[in-house]
């Protein structure tokens, strides 16, 4: 239900979609954040295509977009209950920059929000 039109032809945000045979199999939504990072609002790959390189391609596109805007890196949040995503970010060169044990207090199944960063050299 997201209005994707708000990401079209904008300098401060973008949406990239991955397609296979006219089917959307992945997406990444990014913004130029106040701290000069490209912040990933959301990245997702359809379950059947995870591990096939779609996520890496989407991250590469986000990195290209960020570098064109002279940002210093990429950042995102993940929760400690999503081990697969955390392993993926590590494999893609992200480092853990911090944790928050209160942000998800409303959700009894999540204990910690993890803040991931990939700094450009």
Describe the structure.
The chain is built from two helices and six strands; from the N terminus they run βββαβαββ. With 121 residues, the protein is α+β, with helices and mostly antiparallel strands. It has one domain (4-119): Gcn5-related N-acetyltransferase (GNAT) (Aminopeptidase, 3-Layer(aba) Sandwich). A six-stranded mixed beta sheet has the order 1-2-3-4-6-5, covered by helices on one side. The protein is globular and about 35 Å long. The model has no long low-confidence stretch (mean pLDDT 96).
Brief rundown of the structure:
The chain has 121 residues and is of the alpha+beta class. The chain has a single domain, classed as Aminopeptidase (3-Layer(aba) Sandwich). The chain contains 2 helices and 6 strands, in the order βββαβαββ.
Order of helices and strands: EEEHEHEE
As laid out across the biggest beta sheet, the strand order is 1-2-3-4-6-5
Percent of residues in helices: 10-25%
Q: If helices are DSSP runs of H or I spanning 4 or more residues, what is the number of helices?
A: 2
Largest sheet: 6 strands, mixed
For this structure, what is the CATH class? Alpha Beta
Which structural class do you get from the secondary structure elements?
A: alpha+beta
Principal-axis shape? globular
Q: Do you know the CATH topology?
A: Aminopeptidase
The CA-CA distance between the termini, in Å, is 37 Å
According to CATH, the homologous superfamily is: Gcn5-related N-acetyltransferase (GNAT)
* Total individual domains: 1
- Provide the gyration radius in Å: 15 Å
Q: What's the count of strands? A: 6
In the CATH hierarchy, what is the architecture at level 2?
3-Layer(aba) Sandwich
Strand-residue fraction?
35-45%
Mean pLDDT: 96
């Amino acid at each position: 239900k997201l209005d994707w039109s708000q990401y079209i032809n904008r300098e401060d945000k973008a949406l990239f979609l991955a397609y296979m045979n006219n089917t959307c199999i992945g997406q990444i939504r990014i913004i130029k954040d106040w701290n000069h990072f490209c912040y990933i609002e959301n990245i997702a790959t359809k379950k059947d295509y995870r591990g096939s390189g779609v996520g890496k391609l989407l991250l590469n596109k986000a990195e290209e977009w960020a570098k064109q805007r002279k940002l210093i890196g990429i950042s995102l949040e993940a929760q400690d209950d999503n081990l697969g995503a955390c392993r993926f970010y590590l494999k893609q060169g992200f480092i853990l920059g911090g944790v928050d044990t209160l942000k998800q207090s409303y959700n009894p199944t999540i204990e910690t929000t993890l803040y991931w960063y990939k700094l450009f050299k």
